[in-house]
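re: that chain from earlier
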Amino acid sequence: MAIDLKKGQRIDLTKGQASLKTIKVGLGWDVAKPKGSGGFFKKMFAAAAPEIDCDASVLLIHKNGKLESKHDVVFFGNLKHSSGSVLHMGDNRTGEGDGDDEVVMVELAKVPANIHRLVFVVNIYDSAARNLDFGMIENAFIRIVDNSSNKELGKFNLTDSYAGKTSLIVGEVYREENDWKFAATGEGTNDASLSEIQRRYS
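^ sequence. v structure.
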């Protein structure tokens, strides 16, 4: 049974599950709906609502807590890590529809030994120029799935208010001795781009 995670909670992914080889990390979000009963004003809001392009990325962090190379960032412009361990399945520019909006596959055995953490982040593309923030986004989540069985191991729904924030550090998959674990982070930041997020780990 999947675990419904709270902010700050950690779960063990591989302990007792030696067969776990590849995980699917699904991230999702929706553009916030207008408040109220609908009608004329709802239609006006829908016509004026901006298109919001959220981008999911993965930072492969070394044991020293640093991002050692720009090649250790997997995102829509670099869909596959050189080790073959992390594969981004492509950009979704609208967030429309149910389920995962963007998906990252992680082959745990291929993650290089010097990589300690995989940090999953979501930022709003061109947020500063278009005056966009995560107060305009709702139903954001990250979930971890055993790819071989399609069993959901854990899901973290980000329920905090992130108004004014332009990036989210959503969660981390990390090593602890021989096991892989997941931490539900849910930290909002004012970083305006993926490059700014990367500087946090430089």
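The chain has one domain: 3-35+46-199.
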